[in-house]
Amino acid sequence: MPDRVVLKVSALSKRYRTVNAVDGVSFGMESGEIIGILGPNGAGKTTTINMILGLIKPTSGSVEVFGKNLSTDREEISKTTNFSAVYSHLPPNLTVRQNLYVFGLLYDVKSLEKKINSLLGEFDLEKYSGTKTGLLSSGELSRLNLAKAVINEPRLLLLDEPTASLDPSVAQTIRELITRYVARTGAAVLWASHNMKEITTVCKKVFFLSKGKILLSGDPRRLPAEHGKQDLEELFISMAREPLTFER
Question: pLDDT at position 87, please?
């Protein structure tokens, strides 16, 4: 199947003076996959995502999206990529519609007004269309961030804690919106989270990062038992406290 391989990360590393924030990370993703990244704070999750986005230059290694190298084809790659992150803030003085309009222009979205109206309906934001973003609740902001993240119909979607601090009902809505998007478009999603249940529910595969390295990877529903743990949370705690136990 053409374009089956969406993302290829090879020996990706980022060093800050004496600290290896990311240390030789390698993995690939195919169309339709949702892959989770787990790890304690400082494990390298956000740094890895930012290097894939081209926001941080790697110390070494490479990133390829649909066979194109990020170091030489970033502009073309950006057309098929987008992201949503808990730390990514939208301009608070712009309305919901204005924010989507600005990002639609940045991504050169065709039939932009039609696309915005569709997103407002899909993400239940129609009644907030004229509301300034700074006045939205955390759940409304999360839906807007996600609407912004899919405005260009990305084939690679990067998510960094997309449901952090949301109540269970809103978080479930966000998960449903993402899984529906993947089912409709065949996009690949890389999903960083601290929510074990979330990763187990939505992800086909999970990577455990510790001190910039992938220590474990596999099916989040089977991986705990393979290492003598009851569930993903118990495995996470064990790995975070004793990472050397899981060194390959």
Answer: 73
